Amino acid sequence: MRFPRPPPSERAFSIGIPAMIWQVLFFYIPLLFIIVSSVVKVSETGAIKGFTFTMVAHFFTPTYLKVIFSSILLALSNVVICFCIAYPLAYFMAFTGKRFKNTLLFLLLIPFWTNFLLHVYAWFYVLENQGFLNNMLIHLGLIKQPLVLLNSIFSIMIMMVYYYLPFMVLPIYSSLERFNANLIEASLDLGATWFQTFRRIILPLTMRGVRAGFFLVYIPSFGEFAIPELMGGDKQMFVGNVVSQYILAEGTGSLGAAFTVVSCAILLATAIFFYWLMDRYVYVKVR
């Protein structure tokens, strides 16, 4: 018995069905469980007694809001630093260094070939008291005593930028590669400065790639757990650390689910705001 082949208009949908099933099973259903766990009241025997928002309201306190704000600040700092490094690099790859484009892309993707923990241990060697960076600064006569670089915000940011930089470079490079370079020449010929050309032409027309890179870095940075835990020495508290402590501890899983819901709601609100802000920027500049 032969099954009829779907028409061409439906083949793309048919191919995407396994991915949709995977997303429903391993994203939407667990997300639903987390939301339900955050509002369900369970007795000591494990019986469901009803619904309550007490656990959710518990996290709208200055202590936990400060943790969420710290995570937002960490994510935004990572986005800004990655953008400042990624845009010039992507511009060079797209327009100036076309001969080295494949080599640079290869070097950019090499870190993903090795285990994440190896990267962390490599940075331990660089940043520790007797590590490469301190020894180099002492050898150059810039410092006399080793600097405390590990277990600090500095080490966290170094590792965050190192790990998330490719996620910012690749979308921007993809937009710049399709950009019409004649627009830059026309703008400069008409008397615009390089900064004006960048601000009013290049950046607005490549905002789609910038926006994609922004959210690829911002959203996972907000919930990052491993990097603050390993590089920060558990001295800095962020959303990922708090969630892991509640989830892994005995009898506090519901609190972890509630804090996840609260932090994700605030993350979604900030993401919508930043999306509107970038969309507004493009609308104003292109008019």
> How many DSSP H or I helices?
13
Largest sheet: 2 strands, antiparallel
The CATH architecture of the largest domain can be given as Orthogonal Bundle
Structural class: mainly alpha
| CATH C-level of the largest domain | Mainly Alpha
Distance between the termini: 59 Å
Tell the overall outline. globular
* Proportion of strand residues: under 5%
Quaternary state of the chains = single chain
User: What gyration radius follows from the Cα positions, in whole Å?
Assistant: 24 Å
Instruction: Quote the average pLDDT.
Output: 86
Residue ranges: pLDDT <50 for 5 or more in a row? none
Describe this structure in words.
- This protein has helices spanning 8-39, 54-58, 62-96, 101-109, 116-127, 132-139, 153-177, 182-189, 194-205, 207-222, 226-231, 239-248, 253-286, and strands at 40-42, 48-51.
- It has 287 residues and is mainly α.
- The chain has two domains: 1-52, no CATH class; 55-286, MetI-like fold, CATH 1.10.3720.
- It has a two-stranded antiparallel sheet.
- A hairpin with a 5-residue loop joins strand 1 (40-42) and strand 2.
- Helix 12 packs antiparallel against helix 13.
- It is globular, with a radius of gyration of 24 Å.
- The N and C termini lie far apart (59 Å).
- The model has no long low-confidence stretch (mean pLDDT 86).
